[in-house]
Amino acid sequence: MPVTQQYIDEIREIVAEALEIEPEEMTETSSFVDDHDGDSLRAIEILARLEKRYGVEIPQSELPKMGNLRAVYDVVAERANWDS
């Protein structure tokens, strides 16, 4: 499995747990708010879980960008320097 897909799958598990949904219910582009009833409290919980799991700091100012799985991956990958 490509590393990128492995990270996406891990992030999917983390986000699904925080949103209290099954990972299979979430696509890379489904909206956490519109499709999965996410709210700001859950967004902060997702942020905290990602920071702990990957040892990165993600400013809360990034939260508006993190509306779906692909966007979350992009933000975490940038902070964790996965692409370099």
UniProtKB/TrEMBL annotation:
4'-phosphopantetheine is transferred from CoA to a specific serine of apo-ACP by AcpS. This modification is essential for activity because fatty acids are bound in thioester linkage to the sulfhydryl of the prosthetic group. InterPro entries: ACP, ACP-like_sf, PP-bd_ACP. Keywords: Cytoplasm, Fatty acid biosynthesis, Fatty acid metabolism, Lipid biosynthesis, Lipid metabolism, Phosphopantetheine, Phosphoprotein. Pfam families: PP-binding. SUPFAM superfamilies: ACP-like. It comes from the Bacteria. Pathway: Lipid metabolism; fatty acid biosynthesis. Residues 2-80 form the Carrier domain. GO terms for molecular function: acyl binding; acyl carrier activity. Belongs to the acyl carrier protein (ACP) family. HAMAP family: Acyl_carrier. PANTHER family: ACYL CARRIER PROTEIN, CARRIER DOMAIN-CONTAINING PROTEIN. This is Acyl carrier protein. It comes from Streptomyces aureus. The lineage of its organism: Bacteria, Bacillati, Actinomycetota, Actinomycetes, Kitasatosporales.
